[in-house]
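Annex B. Sample input.
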Amino acid sequence: MRRLKLRRGQLDLLAGCPPCQGFSAMTTLNGAIKRNDPRNDLVFEFLRFVRALRPKTVMMENVPDIAKNKRITQFLAEMEGLGYRCNHSVLNAADYGVPQRRRRFILLAGKHKKIPFARRAVRKRSVREAILRLGAVGKRDALHNIPERRSSKTMRLIRSIPRNGGSRTQLPSHRQLRCHRKCDGFKDVYGRLSWDKVAPTITGGCCNPSKGRFLHPAEHRAITLREAALLQTFPRKYVFSLRRGKFAAAQLIGNALPPEFVRRHAKSVLRSLRQHHGKF
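Annex B, continued. Sample output.
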C-alpha cells in the first residue's frame, strides 16, 4: 500500500486465483483421495489482502471443486462479515463467447453491493470460427510453426483417427497403442477436435495429443500453440515467449483464464463501480 500510495478502501478491484492444484478433481481422483495440500490455505492469504486493502470490488476464480471445500465456506462468511455481498457460482466459459468448455468457480463481490455475472452469449462459438482462418502451419508466426517430432508408430495412429471429432476408441483394438488397450479411462487422449463444436478444456498439455483431445480436426497433427491461444480467446498477435521452450509456453496458455470470459465479467464489475462510485 505504501509503494502504490493506496489508502484503505481506495482500490477499485482486487482479483486473483489462489493455487488450484490441491482442490482439483484431477489430483484427488475425483474426490476418491484426500489431499492436505498446504497451498489450499492460501485462500486465507487472499482474504488477508481483502482485510488490509478493503477494495471496492473483489474477483476470485478457481477450479469447480473449491466450491465443495470447507475453506471457501469460511472465506465467504468472513467476506460477508467485512461488508461484502458475494455472488459465486461454477460457470462455463463456453456460455460467454469462448469456443471451449471450461468450468470455473467465479466469485464477484462488492462492498455493500452484489455484482451480477455477465450475460450469457446468445450462441456458442465453434472451433471453426476460432482457428479456420489461421490456415496451415509454416507461416512466420513462431507459435504456429513449431515442428512436431513423433515416431512412425504414433503418426500411423494419428492418421487413422477419423477427422472432425474422431477418437482412438473408434479404432479396432489391434490398431491402438498397447498402453491404451490396457487403460479404460482418458478416452479423449489422441482425439480430434470437432469443427462445429466448442473445444474441450485447453490445458498446459494442449500441444501434446497424449494429454487429451488436442488433435487438429482435419490435419494429422496436434493443434499449434497459436491455435490453442485462439481457442483461449487471446488476440491473434498476442506474444508468448518461447525462450523457455514450447512446453513452458503451453503451460502459460493452458493455465490462463480465457480473456473473453474475463472481459465480459470485468464489464459487469465496471458498471458496478460507475453506478456506486461515480468513476470511469
